[in-house]
Specification:
- There is one protein chain.
- The protein is an alpha+beta fold.
- It contains eight helices and five strands, in the order H-H-H-H-H-H-E-H-E-E-H-E-E.
- It has helices at 3-32, 37-86, 88-108, 125-132, 150-155, 171-188, 201-209, 247-262; strands at residues 192-196, 229-236, 239-241, 266-267, 278-280.
- Strands 1, 2, 3, 4 and 5 form a five-stranded antiparallel β-sheet that branches.
- The protein starts with a helix and ends in a 26-residue tail after the last strand.
Length: 306
C-alpha cells in the first residue's frame, strides 16, 4: 500500500469516529434544545462539506501518484525492450544456456515425455517391465533339513510335508510371486522362501482339524487348492525365519506385503487376523469348486494366527 493509501485509511477511520461523535452530539442537542436545531443542522452540514473536500483532495493525490508510477514502469519496460533488441545474440545465448539442461533431460526421456501414468499406485515401471518381460525362473529347492528346524516346526506344524512345487502353482500367480521375490532381494536384501504353495483338499482338511490358528477354510474353499495362494518366509543365515516377533522379520513382511499388493496380489497381513506370509491372486467364482488338480482359479485361506 502506498503512502497516500495509508493516509486515506487513517483519515477515513478518524473521520468515521468524528462523524459518529458529531452525530450523537447533534441528536442530543436537538432533543434537549429544540430552538437550536437549525443552527446544529447547519454546523453539521459544514463539517460534512469539509470532510468530503479533504477526502476529494486525497483521492486526487492518489490518482497523481498512481499515474506517475505507471509512467515510470512504462519507461522502464520500453528501455528494457530496446536493450533486448540491441543485444539479441547475447540474450539468445543466455536463454539457451538456461534452458539447455532441462531440454536435454526431456529429450533423453524419449516417449515417456507425456507419460500420464500415476506411478504412486498399482505398479512402477520396474515392476511393469518384470511382469511383461521374460518368464522368471523359480529358485532351486532348498535341502529338506532347512524346513525342519525347531522354530519352523513350532510355528508351522507339518511344514516338512508342505508342497513347495512351483509347477503346481497357477502360472500367472507364480510369475507375480517371483517378481516379489526378485524385488525383495534386489531392493531390500531379503531372500524369500516358499513355505507352502499348492495344497490338496485332504491336507486342507487336516490343517483345519488342527484349529483356527492354522486355517479357517475347509477343503476347496482355499486358493491354495487352485494354485493361487502361497505362504512365504525368509531365509536368514541359512535358516528359515518366520516369526513376526523378530523386528527384522516383521519389517520384511511389511515390505513383502507392499510389493505383493503392487503386483496385484492380496496380502494376508492386511486381514483382521493377520497372516503375514500369505499372498493370493483372487479370481471370481473359484472358491468352492472341487478340484483334483491345479486349475487357473484364485482362492485363499482365511487369515491364520501365527
Amino acid at each position: 500500500m502506498t503512502f497516500y493509501g495509508f493516509q486515506i485509511v487513517f483519515i477515513v477511520i478518524q473521520a468515521s469516529l468524528f462523524a459518529y461523535f458529531v452525530l450523537v452530539a447533534s441528536v442530543v442537542v436537538m432533543v434537549t434544545f429544540p430552538d437550536r436545531r437549525t443552527r446544529t443542522l447547519a454546523a453539521f452540514e459544514q463539517i460534512l462539506v469539509l470532510l468530503l473536500g479533504a477526502l476529494s483532495r486525497l483521492l486526487r493525490g492518489v490518482t497523481v501518484d498512481l499515474n506517475e508510477t505507471l509512467r515510470q514502469a512504462s519507461r522502464r519496460a520500453a528501455n528494457g525492450l530496446r536493450w533486448v533488441r540491441g543485444h539479441r545474440a547475447l540474450v539468445s545465448v543466455a536463454l539457451l544456456a538456461v534452458l539447455a539442461p532441462s531440454l536435454a533431460v526431456l529429450a533423453m526421456r524419449g516417449p515417456t515425455l507425456f507419460d500420464l501414468i500415476d506411478h504412486s499406485s498399482a505398479t512402477d515401471r520396474q515392476i511393469a517391465r518384470l511382469l511383461e518381460g521374460e518368464q522368471l525362473t523359480p529358485p532351486l529347492p532348498l535341502p529338506p533339513e532347512v524346513f525342519t528346524t525347531r522354530e519352523a516346526e513350532q510355528i508351522w506344524p507339518d511344514i516338512a510335508t508342505a508342497s513347495r512345487d512351483w509347477d503346481l502353482l497357477d502360472p500367472l500367480f507364480a510369475q507375480r510371486l517371483l517378481v516379489v521375490f526378485k524385488l525383495m532381494k534386489e531392493r531390500h536384501g531379503y531372500e524369500m522362501v516358499l513355505i507352502e504353495g499348492h495344497r490338496s483338499p485332504q491336507r486342507q482338511e487336516q490343517l483345519l482339524a488342527q484349529g483356527s490358528h492354522m486355517t479357517q477354510a475347509r477343503a476347496n474353499m482355499s486358493y491354495h487348492q487352485h494354485g493361487l495362494a502361497a505362504d512365504c518366509a525368509f531365509l536368514m543365515e541359512g535358516r528359515i525365519a518366520i516369526s513376526e516377533r523378530d523386528p527384522l522379520v516383521m519389517r520384511g513382511y511389511q515390505l513383502y506385503g507392499e510389493l505383493a499388493e503392487q503386483v496385484g496380489l492380496t496380502w494376508g497381513g492386511g486381514w483382521r487376523m493377520q497372516d503375514y506370509g500369505h499372498v493370493e491372486l483372487r479370481r471370481p467364482s473359484v472358491l468352492g469348486n472341487v478340484v483334483s488338480h491345479v486349475t487357473a482359479g484364485d482362492t485363499a485361506d482365511l487369515p491364520k494366527l501365527n
